[in-house]
Structure to design on (668 residues):
């Protein structure tokens, strides 16, 4: 979810997006890591010479932006690897895909997932019904093939928008959520988590199989275990669980990942927002410094008023049981999901796996907050493709690293290991459990590089490079810019590339480069950087999720939140982004979401014939700034009723399936 900065107080807000944006300020990183202000000029200069790629910023500096779009020579060079006719920037009530492709709605909020599931009835929602139906705000999409025409789709349900979910409720005062009933909250909790559902392909298109034996809903109440080095620690014990190993549910699952052994990684992002209790309770908490660093309590939901588990004054340790990566065995719908504490606790955005050349498994993750860090986890054991059972607890044993990006273009991965460097009892870390529960505090001590909101991080198995979506950071000051975060008041974000040393993802060194500085290349004030072959529709702002297809090509989706008008003026979408050769840094628009939505997923099938994308919080963000509507949306008065356009139905977050008309690989 997006939290572009706004300068107002929480109680001045009239929508959830804005509340989340402001709450994001609470836990901002106070670390004073050295800045390297002149770096970007040097780095970009070197890159330009090496690659011969003209950049918009350089053109602008050399005397204006005329001719930026469609520079003929570069355009020919960049035609390259993504073969489709791009669509236009714009905003309207529906979705758009490139000519020659179908974009079919596959799964909508409320769609039945089981043969006995009730049909969606938004006027009579119940917890029991929602537990058998597709949840709200679909984000990550994962695909696991079972056979030629059968697969499992895994979809995260990040959060809920009560004003768009419940008829007659309207927008709630976030101070007390006065009209939120226990019944509404139970539906919200059941609409969180994830969906695991079998899909079958017929005539080139996938359809949900409500009879699938693997179908499952995971929610904010699903029993889970805490495993790994922090499991059983005193700080993970609550009045309901004296063992510190049993927890209910997962929260705010944003980007995620799949493992090669058929498990689904649900990364817990803004878990702080669900906790309640006020400033006094936070200050009196035995781990007040930790709570402050994580922005707890966020108070974004009414749950803490109705359920003591989410009130830090009543249940001080529950909050330490969230902010982890959850691993789910999708082949056993009765399995207990595991929160893997070895992978650290922060606002995990994404958890994308690559099998390293030595067989160890490496998983990359961003910590999505302004001035937070990029992480990777390296297992001690190796992946065994012939013994599934041997892989099932690989994620309990390994080393978590945090990244430092140096002025000379180097990357240092620093281990978060108790007893090493400053991670000792003298500095408040009594054990590895302390290091993992307070990953952010430990990473501060190591001098990690504060980034412009790291979102999805995807390794490319074809090139072995790694792509980090840095979405934006309007709080970065001019005296705090550095190489990978080169712009002050950065509303647009950038795409960072990491090259591991010797193609070894377990290495503690590597190098970095920027692929693009997002935003409008025709506006010199933006200081965007694109390959000049990028057209007026090919640039984007606020990269968030991404994926690499089987051809080794990068695809980026955006989330501009309520700041879309200022950031780009177009709705979010899917863009191809070339990373190789003369075309490097060229964007191309493939899909666009309806007004108020964020573009999530994206997920290609392994044959590149289907692209699943998740249209999240449709009709929600920034609808006030869309002139034809001009106001905030509610259930009863939404900016669009996508995808059904039925006056009796609200807008519904949905997964869309994109295929080529007549079949075949996408963009090939
Ligand atoms: Fe849920 Fe960082 O986006
Ligand atoms: Ca995201
Ligand atoms: Ca991804």
């Amino acid at each position: 979810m997006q939290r572009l900065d706004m300068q107002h107080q929480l109680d001045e807000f009239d929508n959830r997006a804005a509340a989340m944006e402001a709450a994001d300020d609470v836990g901002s990183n106070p670390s004073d890591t050295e800045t390297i202000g002149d770096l970007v000029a040097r780095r970009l200069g070197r890159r330009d010479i090496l690659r011969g790629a003209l950049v918009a910023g350089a053109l602008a500096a050399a005397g204006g932006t005329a001719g930026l779009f469609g520079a003929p020579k570069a355009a020919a060079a960049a035609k390259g690897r993504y073969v489709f006719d791009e669509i236009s920037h714009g905003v309207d009530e529906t979705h758009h895909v490139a000519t020659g492709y179908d974009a079919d709605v596959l799964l909508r909020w409320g769609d039945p997932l089981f043969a006995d599931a009730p049909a969606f009835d938004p006027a009579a929602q119940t917890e029991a019904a929602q537990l058998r139906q597709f949840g709200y705000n679909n984000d990550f999409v994962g695909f696991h093939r079972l056979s030629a025409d059968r697969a499992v789709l895994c979809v995260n349900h990040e959060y809920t928008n009560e004003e768009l979910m419940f008829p007659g409720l309207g927008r709630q005062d976030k101070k007390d959520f006065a009209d939120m009933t226990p019944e509404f909250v139970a539906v919200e909790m059941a609409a969180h988590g994830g969906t695991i559902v079998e899909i079958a392909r017929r005539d080139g298109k996938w359809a949900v199989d409500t009879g699938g034996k693997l179908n499952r809903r995971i929610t904010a109440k699903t029993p889970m275990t805490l495993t790994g080095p922090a499991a059983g620690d005193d700080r993970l014990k609550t009045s309901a669980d004296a063992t510190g190993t049993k927890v209910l549910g997962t929260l705010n699952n944003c980007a995620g990942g799949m493992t090669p052994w058929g498990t689904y990684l649900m990364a817990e992002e803004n878990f702080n927002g669900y906790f309640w209790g006020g400033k006094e309770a936070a200050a009196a908490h035995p781990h007040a410094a930790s709570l402050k660093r994580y922005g707890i309590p966020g108070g974004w939901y009414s749950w803490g008023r109705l359920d003591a588990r989410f009130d830090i004054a009543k249940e001080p340790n529950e909050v330490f049981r969230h902010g982890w990566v959850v691993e789910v065995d999708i082949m056993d719908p009765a399995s207990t999901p595991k929160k893997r504490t070895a992978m650290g606790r922060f606002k995990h955005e994404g958890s994308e796996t690559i099998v390293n050349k030595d067989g160890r498994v490496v998983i990359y993750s961003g910590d999505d907050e302004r001035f937070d860090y990029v992480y990777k986890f390296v297992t001690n054991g190796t992946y065994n493709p012939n013994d599934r059972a041997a892989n099932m607890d690989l994620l309990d044993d390994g080393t978590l690293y945090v990244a430092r990006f140096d002025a000379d273009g180097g990357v240092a991965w620093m281990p978060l290991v108790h007893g090493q460097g400053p991670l000792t009892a003298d500095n408040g870390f009594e054990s590895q459990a302390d290091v993992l529960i307070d990953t952010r505090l430990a990473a501060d001590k190591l001098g990690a590089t504060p980034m412009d909101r790291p979102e999805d991080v995807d390794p490319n198995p074809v090139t072995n490079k790694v792509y980090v979506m840095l979405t934006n950071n309007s709080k970065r000051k001019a005296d705090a810019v550095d190489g990978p975060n080169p712009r002050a008041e950065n509303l647009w974000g950038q795409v960072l590339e990491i090259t591991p040393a010797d193609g070894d993802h377990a290495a503690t060194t590597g190098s970095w480069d920027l692929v693009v500085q997002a935003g409008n290349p025709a506006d010199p004030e933006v200081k965007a950087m694109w390959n000049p072959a990028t057209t007026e529709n090919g640039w984007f702002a606020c990269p968030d999720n991404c994926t690499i297809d089987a051809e080794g090509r990068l695809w980026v989706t955006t989330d501009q939140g309520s700041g879309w008008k200022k950031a780009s003026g177009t709705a979010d979408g899917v863009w191809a982004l070339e990373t190789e050769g003369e075309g490097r840094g060229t964007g191309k628009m493939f899909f666009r979401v309806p007004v108020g939505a964020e573009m999530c997923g994206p997920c290609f099938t392994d044959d590149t014939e289907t692209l699943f994308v998740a249209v999240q919080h449709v009709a929600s963000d920034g609808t006030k700034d869309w002139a034809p509507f001009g106001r905030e949306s509610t259930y009863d008065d939404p900016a669009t009723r996508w995808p059904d356009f039925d006056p009796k139905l609200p807008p519904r977050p949905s997964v869309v399936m994109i295929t080529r008309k007549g079949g075949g690989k996408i963009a090939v």
About this structure: The pocket of MU-OXO-diiron (ligand 1) is lined by residues 1, 158, 254, 269, 349, 368, 455, 544 (CB under 6 Å).
